[in-house]
């Protein structure tokens, strides 16, 4: 598979992952597109990679592009990210959950979101992040412990 075929085949996975770390469809789409542009600019690095390594490279690049965006914007979260909430009665609850998630280190936060928002199992998460399922389960356990302590 070439870079284009991998991108086309996994585009939805990349977009779902980006949504899981941004909670904003437009921002997620931008992250995926920026990552693909970066891949095209550095296409020669993929010559020695297999399709799984390339897929992992995309996930890592999407995550890093998001970190860059957050740093650039000084971690200020705009009100527009909260406007797409479906039920206003759960607004305060949603803010509290989001605040707790944001207090987690990013590696744990991403795994928690993938597990509980997207209902992915440890094997699926591990495939997306290039980690073993046992490492994912350990990270989930650690993250849940941190969240319990914060309550």
Descriptive labels:
mainly alpha; 2 domains; 151 residues; Arc Repressor Mutant, subunit A; 0% strand
Sum this structure up briefly:
The chain has 151 residues and is mostly helical. Helices cover 72% and strands 0% of the residues. The chain has helices at 3-22, 25-41, 51-72, 91-103, 106-116, 122-129, 133-150.
Distance between termini? 47 Å
Q: How many β-strand runs?
A: 0
Q: Helices and strands, in N-to-C order?
A: HHHHHHH
Number of helices: 7
In words, what does this structure look like?
This protein is mainly alpha-helical and 151 residues long. The protein folds into two domains: 1-84, no CATH class; 91-151, Orthogonal Bundle (Arc Repressor Mutant, subunit A), CATH 1.10.10. 72% of the residues lie in helices and 0% in strands. The chain is built from seven helices and no strands. Helix 6 crosses helix 7. Mean pLDDT is 81; it is low at 74-87.
Secondary-structure map:
Blueprint: H1 3-22, H2 25-41, H3 51-72, H4 91-103, H5 106-116, H6 122-129, H7 133-150
Helix pairs in contact: 1-2, 1-3, 2-3, 5-7, 6-7
